[in-house]
Structures are given as structure tokens and as C-alpha cells.
């Protein structure tokens, strides 16, 4: 049925146009198409293409009269020059293009040329409100065409392009074209260029090669909505090519597939390197198997590499982006946001000079998906949910300052069948978060890290590495299902420079039979390195490797209260400096207080020594205690003395007697 827009309709099958197009897939209908569109374009009407298979055979533009010269080196078969002209195809219409166009190589001396199946506008003069709707358009190179896979400036063949604005391309499929759509015309406002075109439900499959560098190049204000973009995979072609100085590009609901050759990627930019520019808004898109270069080389590249500020919402990245690069790679990006996206075996990379990139807590990461921040990237925020990751979920390093990992939810079940610990082939990640800024700063705050199914003290929640500078870890909750085996919820490696501040962290593993779990001293946080401060933390495992602790206050290590009532004692006692700040002994006999176990620099211990009713009980302190007091040994009296550890001795800081 013809498209009726209240204007004149010109049917390509009408005998008025070179006897009418036949649509049998054998007869060359090129001239009928040219004549019908010329008639429609003369009045701004509609060319209608009924159901059928229409063959269009084209030769070299230099000799084939079917071609029209737009400007030197630029040719078109079909051309629209009038505002409002439309090409409307029945859903059952297929236009099959066979071109013997000679594609030159970089060594040819003939001038380069660009050809279009449909060209909109005159040379540098734009048309508006034109439309191409419906139909399946295919392209095939036939002899004597010479195809080449490089130097796209030579004889590129476009499905459609030209100087057009405020126009619509919808419900079309383009199959096999070297290149797709090229917006050449634009409106300049305040030095910025716009086209305001709409591409809706356009399918582009098997594109690329023969001089193709991208499927589509767009100006500002353009919207691409729905549809599929799928490469041939063996040629070098980007998907959508946006301009850094063209704001207002929206890409919504597009599925990108198999764009993985020659370093080309689904969404790429054009502009001067180092220009921050304007990034597109990308929403509800899906990227599948878009990991660049597979022609015998190691894969590199990303599914999306925004240089300017951009917003990415509700997208899925599935096996897209090489692990060392990313499903999304932010480079020199400012003010970008990622919200509600799912990453499956795909990586988010925040690269040098990026600033103000924010990953929302609604982002989910599966399989080998991870976030990597490095170099001079600064003032970025990483959030998200990670379930049974196959790689370290979050890694932060470099010289950038002000980076934040906030509210991350990371759950690792070592009994999962995919891990070697569960009988599988994949080694579990070394740590949930690895943070080692070297000259930079990082703040890890909030969130939860959960480790299930572990049987050995080898897993790490948050880890710093050698050379780490200025890390703050606070208000992070840790969880585990083991009541017999601890884990290094936080590990500060020995060569850490610091300062490292750990505050308000909490391990919430359930108690065993209602009794506080107390694990061996080696099964808890590891504090190597230097310049470490511990404040208001509660861990089930006891503190170990404490050489780097310079200050520790109000911490609970070992999962028991910091005030311990040891009851009535009659023999020598060895207090535990790890989990306790205050220990109460009721003296049933004279005793000796041995040197505390698990001491660390800055640890405080307060002893409340209570005489039984008999009284006269003496306390002998080990030589590591530096004592200067005279206790009251009257029956029922309390004496309180407090010490702080300087790394060698426990120095008395206060005492109260006869209470």
C-alpha cells in the first residue's frame, strides 16, 4: 500500500518511468527508479516502491550514465533536492544493488571518489523533512570491482548520504553495504553543527569493507533509535561515528553485534585528540560480541570510547571490549555517568585524564566484568554490584587524586561450581577490591563484601599493594559464613607507604551457637606497611601483621567486646591486646600479668583489678610494663591502671586506686 502523506505519490512500477520497474530480481530497474524519484522530487512528493525484488546494476561512475555527478569525485544514482520528498517502500520490497564500481587502492593515481545509492541535497545545499521509509536494501560487488580493506578515502560506497536535516530514515534494512549513512549538511549555531535527523528501527547488517570506515557518521542533534548494526567482522568499520564538536546526539535502543575487526568499535568519535567535546547520550543499547581485532591478533579496543562528557543508561555490554580495555573506555572524559547498565564479560576502563566519571549503584557486573581505573584519572566514583566475579572486580591505581569506590556490593561464593575451589576451572579473584594509588588518593567507603564457602585463610576483601599512598577505607561491611576459619578482610601489604586510614568497618558474621566467634590471631586483618590508623572497627578475626599501625583506638578484634570480665583468677594471666581495650580481673590470689599477646603499636590496655573479700592480693607485672603506682589491696577495693604500647614497652598513662 502506498504511503499517503497528502501529497502526490509516484509508483516506480508506473509505465511513465522508463516503462516501469519490473521487480523480478532479473531486470535492471535502475532507470525506472531514477525517473520515478525525479518526478516525485520535482513536487516534493513520494516515490512508492511496491512489494517485489528490484535489481539495480551499476558500473563505474566514470562510464556508466546512470550515475549523476554531485561534485567532482562525488556521484549518486538517486538524488533528492526538494524539501519534503519521500521514498516509501512496501515492507515486502527488496532493492538489490549490484555494483561493478572499481574501488581503488592507495597506490592508484586516479582521483578518489565517493558514491551514493541515494544522495539527499545538492552540493553543500541541504534539504529538510525528507524521508526514506521501509524496504530491504542490499549491496553486492560484482566484477570487475576491486575491493580493498584499507584507506577508506578511496571510492567509498554509501547507502545514503548528503546534505539533509530534520529528516527521517525508518523501518529499513541495509545489507552488505560498505558504508551506510553520512550526514554532510549541518546547521551552524554558535559555532556548533546540527542536523536534527531521526533514524528509527534501521537495521544495518554485514556492512564494512571496500573502503568502508564506518556505518554512519552523524552531526549534532541526531537521534538513532532502535534497529541493529552488525559488521561483516572481516573489514575495518566503526558502527556510529559521532563528532566531538556536535552536541545532542542520542543513541537509544540500538543493538550492536560482531563489530570486532581492525580496531574498529560500535561507537567511535571523530575530532582532535585531547578535545573533550560533547559525548552522546546512549540509552537502552545492547553490545554483543564487540571486542575489536580477531584476525589472528590479540583482541584490543572497546565497545564504546567516549572522549567528551556522555550519559550511558540501561545498556548491556555482553562479551564486548577486550579485558585490558573495556566495554566502555573513558579517556580524557569529563562529567560522564553510567546508570543501570549490565556488564557481562565486559570491562569499564577509566583511563588517564578522565575526571568526573560516575558509575551508579544500579550497574551490575557478571563473569569476568570489572572496573579498572589507572593513570592520572581523578575525581571519579565507582559503584556497582558484583556476583561471583571471575576477575578482581575493582582495581584503582595511578597518580589521580580524589577517586572514590562507594557502596560497592561484592559477593564471592568459593563453593560455586565455576571456581577451582568448587571443582571448576576458574581461579577465584585474588581480592574483591585492589586499591594502590601511587602518588594519588582513593577513598573506599560503604558497601558490603561477602565471602562464602571458604575453608582456608587465603582470600582478601580489600588489598593495598607495594607503593600504595593515601588510602581511606571506612564504613565497609564484611561478611562470611565460616565460624572456624577467618579471612583477611583488609590486607595492607608490607611495602605500603601510606597513610592508610581504616575506620568504622564491621564484620557481621553470625555468632556460633550464640557465643562470640574467636578465631586464631593469624586469621583477621593484616596490617603491614607503614602509617596505618585503625579507628572504631569490629572484626571477627584477630589483628595480625601489625608493624605498620601507628594509631589504634576503639577497635574490636576477635569478635568479642572490648571490655572483658575474666572472672576470678588465681594464676598468671596473658592478656590479649588484639581484641580488648579493657580487661577485668577479680583477684582470688596473687598473680603475674605476662606480656600481652598480639600487641601493636598504639594499642591501649586498661586493667581493672578487683580485690576479693580477703584482700592482700598482689599483682606482679612483666618487665614490658612500665609501672609507677601503689595499689590499694583492701578487700573489695578496685584499682585501675592503663597502658599504651610504643612498639617495645607498655607505658603507663593513667592509674586510679582504692575505688
List keywords for this structure.
mainly beta, 17-stranded parallel beta sheet, 1 helix, disordered N terminus
Structural overview:
The structure is a single chain. With 659 residues, the chain is mainly β. Among the domains are: 1-164, no CATH class; 405-560, no CATH class; 563-656. The protein is built from one helix and 67 strands. It has a 17-stranded parallel β-sheet, with no helix packed on it. A twelve-stranded parallel β-sheet has the order 1-3-7-11-15-20-23-26-29-32-35-38. A nine-stranded parallel β-sheet has the order 31-34-37-40-43-46-49-52-55, with no helix packed on it. β18 and β19 form a beta hairpin. The longest helix has 14 residues, at 30-43.
Could you give a quick summary of the protein structure above?
The protein has 659 residues and is mostly beta strands.
How would the blueprint of this fold be written?
Elements: E1 9-11, E2 24-28, H1 30-43, E3 46-49, E4 52-58, E5 68-71, E6 74-80, E7 86-89, E8 93-99, E9 114-120, E10 127-128, E11 131-133, E12 136-141, E13 156-162, E14 164-165, E15 168-170, E16 173-175, E17 179-183, E18 187-189, E19 192-194, E20 198-200, E21 203-207, E22 214-218, E23 223-225, E24 228-231, E25 238-243, E26 250-252, E27 255-257, E28 267-270, E29 278-283, E30 286-288, E31 302-304, E32 309-313, E33 316-318, E34 326-330, E35 337-339, E36 342-344, E37 347-350, E38 358-359, E39 364-366, E40 370-373, E41 381-382, E42 385-387, E43 394-398, E44 403-406, E45 409-413, E46 431-437, E47 442-445, E48 448-452, E49 460-464, E50 471-474, E51 477-480, E52 488-492, E53 500-503, E54 506-507, E55 526-527, E56 532-535, E57 538-539, E58 549-553, E59 556-557, E60 563-569, E61 582-587, E62 591-593, E63 604-611, E64 619-621, E65 625-626, E66 638-645, E67 650-656
Parallel strand pairs: 1-3, 2-4, 3-7, 4-8, 6-9, 7-11, 8-12, 9-13, 10-14, 11-15, 12-16, 13-17, 15-20, 16-21, 17-22, 20-23, 21-24, 22-25, 23-26, 24-27, 25-28, 26-29, 27-30, 29-32, 30-33, 31-34, 32-35, 33-36, 34-37, 35-38, 36-39, 37-40, 39-42, 40-43, 41-44, 42-45, 43-46, 44-47, 45-48, 46-49, ...
Antiparallel strand pairs: 5-6, 18-19, 63-66, 66-67
Amino acid at each position: 500500500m502506498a504511503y499517503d502523506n497528502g501529497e502526490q505519490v509516484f509508483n516506480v512500477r508506473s509505465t511513465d518511468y522508463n516503462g516501469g520497474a519490473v521487480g523480478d530480481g532479473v531486470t535492471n530497474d535502475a532507470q525506472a527508479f531514477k525517473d520515478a524519484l525525479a518526478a516525485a522530487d520535482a513536487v516534493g512528493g513520494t516515490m512508492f516502491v511496491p512489494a517485489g525484488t528490484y535489481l539495480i546494476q551499476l558500473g563505474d561512475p566514470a562510464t556508466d550514465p546512470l550515475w549523476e555527478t554531485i561534485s567532482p569525485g562525488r556521484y549518486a544514482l538517486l538524488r533528492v533536492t526538494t524539501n519534503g520528498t519521500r521514498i516509501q517502500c512496501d515492507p515486502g520490497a527488496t532493492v538489490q544493488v549490484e555494483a561493478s564500481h572499481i574501488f581503488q587502492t592507495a597506490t592508484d593515481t586516479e582521483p578518489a571518489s565517493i558514491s551514493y545509492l541515494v544522495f539527499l541535497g545538492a552540493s553543500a545545499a541541504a534539504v529538510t523533512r525528507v524521508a526514506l521509509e521501509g524496504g530491504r536494501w542490499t549491496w553486492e560487488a560484482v566484477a570487475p570491482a576491486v575491493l580493498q580493506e584499507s584507506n577508506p578515502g578511496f571510492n567509498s560506497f554509501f547507502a545514503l548520504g548528503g546534505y539533509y536535516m530534520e529528516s527521517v530514515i525508518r523501518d529499513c534494512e541495509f545489507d552488505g553495504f560498505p558504508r551506510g549513512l553520512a550526514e554532510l549538511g549541518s546547521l551552524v549555531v554558535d559555532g556548533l553543527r546540527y542536523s536534527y535527523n531521526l533514524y528509527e528501527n534501521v537495521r544495518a547488517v554485514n556492512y564494512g569493507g571496500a573502503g568502508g570506515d564506518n556505518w554512519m557518521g552523524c552531526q549534532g542533534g541526531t537521534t538513532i533509535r532502535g534497529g541493529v548494526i552488525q559488521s561483516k567482522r572481516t573489514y575495518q568499520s566503526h558502527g556510529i561515528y559521532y563528532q566531538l564538536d556536535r552536541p545532542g546526539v542520542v543513541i537509544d535502543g540500538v543493538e550492536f553485534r560482531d563489530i570486532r575487526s581492525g580496531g574498529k568499535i560500535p561507537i567511535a568519535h571523530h575530532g582532535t585528540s585531547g578535545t573533550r567535546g560533547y559525548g552522546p547520550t546512549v540509552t537502552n543499547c545492547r553490545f554483543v560480541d564487540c571486542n575489536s581485532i580477531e584476525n589472528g591478533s590479540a583482541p584490543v579496543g572497546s565497545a564504546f570510547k567516549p572522549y567528551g562528557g556522555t550519559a550511558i543508561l540501561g545498556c548491556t555490554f555482553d562479551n564486548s571490549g577486550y579485558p585490558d580495555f573495556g566495554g566502555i573506555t573513558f579517556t580524557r572524559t569529563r562529567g560522564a555517568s553510567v546508570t543501570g547498565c549490565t556488564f557481562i564479560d565486559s570491562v569499564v576502563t577509566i583511563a588517564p585524564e578522565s575526571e568526573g566519571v560516575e558509575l551508579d549503584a544500579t550497574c551490575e557486573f557478571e563473569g569476568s566484568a570489572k572496573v579498572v581505573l589507572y593513570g592520572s584519572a581523578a575525581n571519579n566514583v565507582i559503584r556497582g554490584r558484583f556476583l561471583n566475579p571471575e576477575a578482581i572486580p575493582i582495581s584503582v591505581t595511578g597518580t589521580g587524586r580524589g577517586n572514590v569506590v562507594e557502596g560497592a556490593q561484592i559477593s564471592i561464593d568459593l563453593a560455586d561450581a565455576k571456581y577451582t575451589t568448587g571443582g571448576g576451572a576458574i581461579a577465584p579473584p585474588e581480592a574483591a577490591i585492589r586499591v594502590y594509588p601511587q602518588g594519588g588518593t582513593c577513598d573506599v567507603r560503604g558497601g558490603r563484601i561477602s565471602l562464602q564457602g571458604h575453608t582456608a585463610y587465603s582470600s582478601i576483601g580489600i588489598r593495598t599493594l607495594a607503593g600504595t599512598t593515601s588510602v581511606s577505607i571506612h564504613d565497609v561491611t564484611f561478611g562470611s559464613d565460616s565460624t572456624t576459619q577467618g579471612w583477611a578482610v583488609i590486607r595492607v601489604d608490607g611495602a605500603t607507604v601510606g597513610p592508610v586510614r581504616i575506620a568504622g568497618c564491621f564484620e557481621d558474621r553470625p555468632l556460633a551457637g550464640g557465643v562470640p566467634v574467636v578465631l586464631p590471631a593469624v586469621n583477621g586483618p593484616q596490617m603491614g606497611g607503614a602509617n596505618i590508623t585503625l579507628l572504631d572497627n569490629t572484626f571477627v578475626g584477630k589483628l595480625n601483621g601489625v608493624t605498620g599501625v601507628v594509631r589504634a583506638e576503639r577497635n574490636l578484634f576477635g569478635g568479642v567486646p572490648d571490655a572483658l570480665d575474666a572472672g576470678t583468677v588465681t594464676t598468671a594471666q596473658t592478656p590479649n591486646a588484639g581484641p580488648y581495650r579493657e580487661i577485668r580481673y577479680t583477684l582470688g590470689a596473687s598473680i603475674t600479668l605476662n606480656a600481652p599477646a598480639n600487641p601493636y603499636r598504639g594499642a591501649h590496655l586498661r586493667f581493672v583489678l578487683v580485690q576479693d573479700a580477703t584482700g592482700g592480693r598482689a599483682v606482679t607485672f612483666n618487665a614490658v610494663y612500665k609501672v609507677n603506682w601503689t595499689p590499694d589491696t583492701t578487700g573489695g577495693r578496685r584499682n585501675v591502671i592503663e597502658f599504651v604500647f610504643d612498639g617495645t614497652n607498655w607505658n603507663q598513662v593513667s592509674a586510679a586506686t582504692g575505688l
